[in-house]
Amino acid sequence: MQIQYEKEIIEMNDEWSFKNFINKYCFDIPDNISIYSSCFLQEKPFSEVFRKDLKVKFYNCNLDNCIIPEGCEIFGKQPINFQLQNDGNDWIINEERKPVKPIDFEIFEKLNLDIPNPDDIPVEKEDYNINLLEVAKSKDI
């Protein structure tokens, strides 16, 4: 099926486009296809879900927490790696698996609030989720 992406017409692969592959391994994707609007999200950061030699174009796909093979191209949303932290919130993590900022950091920016600091994440797991937005609002008073 053909679909327009920005100013380009792409031939998307029907078998792999508009599908949900959450927490699944996808080692059988054929090379040289275009995949549109599929979700490959993984719970575990830096997950190897694709063949290392895969050559595919991903358009508007959710590739969060996936390792993307070098031969692949990504158009649209860029993947991030995130992990649940001791405050009960998902945080974007760096290559050393250290938290950098909350996954929903844009909300803080839109509200002109300070983005929570990873140094404030409790050392021990909390029994409840800390509402980072409420904490940021209370600091802004």
- Proportion of residues in β-strands: 15-25%
Number of H/I helices: 2
Report strand order across the widest sheet: 3-4-5
Structural class: mainly beta
Give the tally of structural domains.
2
Radius of gyration: 18 Å
> N-to-C terminal Cα separation, in Å?
54 Å
Tell me about the largest β-sheet.
3 strands, parallel
H/E element sequence: EEEEEEEEHH
Mean of pLDDT: 95
How many β strands by DSSP?
A: 8
Name some characteristics of this structure:
141 residues, mainly beta
Structure in a nutshell:
The chain is mainly beta. It has two helices and eight strands. It folds into two domains: 1-79, no CATH class; 82-139, no CATH class.
Polypeptide structure, described:
It is a single chain. The strands form three sheets. A three-stranded parallel beta sheet has the order 3-4-5, with no helix packed on it. A three-stranded antiparallel beta sheet has the order 6-7-8, with no helix packed on it. The chain is mainly beta and 141 residues long. It has two domains: 79 residues, no CATH class; 58 residues, no CATH class. Strand 7 and strand 8 form a beta hairpin. The chain is built from two helices and eight strands.
